[in-house]
Amino acid sequence: MLQFLIGPFIACLILTGIHAYLGVHVVERKVIFVDLALAQIAALGTALGVIMGFEYGDTQSYFAGLGFTIIGATIFSLTRMRDERVPQEAIIGIVYAVSAAAFVLIMDQAPEGTEKIKGMLVGSILFVDWPTIIKTATLYSLIGVFHFVFRNKFITISLDPERAFQEKIRVRFWDFLFYTSFGFVVTSSVLIAGVLLVFSYLVVPAVCAVLFSENFKTRLIIGWSLGFLASLFGIIASVAFDLPTGAAIVCTFGLILIISAIIRYFMTRRLNRVQVAAGQSELVSER
User: Fold this and answer.
1) What would the pLDDT profile of 246-283 be if each residue is shown by its tens digit?
2) What is the CA radius of gyration of the chain?
3) How far, rounded to the nearest angstrom, does the alpha carbon of residue 70 sit from its chain's CA centroid?
4) Which CATH number does 2-205 carry?
5) Contact, 234 vs 252, CB < 8 A?
6) Model confidence over 195-211: pLDDT tens digits?
7) What pTM did the predictor assign?
8) How does 206-234 read in b/e, with b if 16+ C-beta sit within 10 Å?
9) Domain boundaries along the sequence of the chain
């Protein structure tokens, strides 16, 4: 049994590595649902591929999903404004809703459409094979190198967009590259893990990291650590209680977020008490 779980666990760690990093950017940009929207757009493209006769999960359906994701990346990069009248998150939400509705309409016409919808939502990470793991690890490594080389531009745009505009950085162009590389990740991840799990790997570790640090590198370390723990305990729970693996990991992420929020609450209370005590001591000494 342990040998059977090594592959899925490695796949989870690969997802953690790239999604925790991208999640920090997404949280800072305040476009939390962009991953969900891009994942749904990728699923829509894949669904169209299935209707056209492509096999779900093969190369042709992958590129169908990727093509739609690049269209989504273009939309999101063009709707980024310096002075927003309409929040970009609203645009993302609209794109997600329309893509999800179109996806349901298309899959309703496909053979075994209900099962395919379930597969795209929760994935089948427990049955991922080693060729897929190696191919995904290679792709994500290349994207990681790309982001490392141009990290200053990506980080500046995410953390301080006003400074990026002042420094004449071509924000829309770099946004397009960011969302396109994001699209490659999402398209691959959805085929392995499903929309819900991909969203959890992106957002939950980053949100937890934001609770405890303002430093980009520290947030990365926290995100990677929590992603590791969620993967480990989620897979263990799925085996121990005979649960769907993807859903078990998503719920584990939810539990980790609740625990993180509680820890943060007590840390804040303790810090406030220390500050109050320090203020009272200063008043006494002044008297």
Assistant:
1) 889 999 999 999 999 999 999 888 888 777 666 655 55
2) 21
3) 17
4) 1.10.3470.10
5) yes
6) 788 889 999 999 999 99
7) 0.83
8) bbbbbbeeeebeebbebbbebbbebbebb
9) 2-205
